[in-house]
From TrEMBL:
One Pfam family named in its UniProt record: PapD_C
Signal sequence extent: 1-18
Residues annotated as domain Pili assembly chaperone C-terminal: 168-225
Keyword Magnesium on entry: no
Identification of the protein by name: Molecular chaperone
Protein source organism: Pseudocitrobacter cyperus
Keywords of the record: Chaperone, Periplasm, Signal
Domain of life: Bacteria
Family indicated by similarity: Belongs to the periplasmic pilus chaperone family.
Amino acid sequence: MKLIAALSGLLLSLPVLADSIIVNGTRFIYKGNEKELTVQLSNTATRPSLAQVWLDNGDSTVTPDQITTPFQINPPISRIDAHGGQVIRIKLSAGNSLPQDKESLWWINVLDIPGTSKADKAPEGMGIFKMAVRSRFKLIYRPKPLSGRVAAIEKLTLQTAGTALTLTNPTPFYITVATISLGRGDPLNAEAVMIAPGSSATINVRQAIRSGEELTLEEINDYGALAKRVTRAS
């Protein structure tokens, strides 16, 4: 299926219908001991919408018909009535080859294609531009044997080299650090950084950090909330 592109250049002259589908989360954890993951979609508009849902493995430019994943989505396309809802079920296929010693990362795509109603009437001489809006959410598959996710941030190490900061994650979990601060000061990083299992990421910060200085990290946990940790750079 081809994606419907969102064309923003016409918005200055046309009334717009868009972005009515709300998703019940900002990230999703598929635990290996669960049979499926459910995602709740809600239509907040006064008109029906068509929702298309698919997964990708990080390349947002690939269209759904070119993507192969070990997951099944039901339903992949659904009509959601005004103020209605739809439960999307994501199930891991049997016989998949996903690693069992570390987490795997996927992305849930939700394309919101608004419909029209009798109330949608454009001024005389003008048309209505229907804009499809696409949103992406992290989907992390966590194998059943893994445990100790809450303590993972405690194992993250930081190494400084002036304004370069290297974060090393020796755990089997994805760790996302939202902010890095000196004590209680303002964040030194411009954006959140996600460190994959068993890997490192180097970022540039707004000021040099000396070895041994106290740093406050805010991690985004499984529920999308922030959890703080105080540590020191080496």
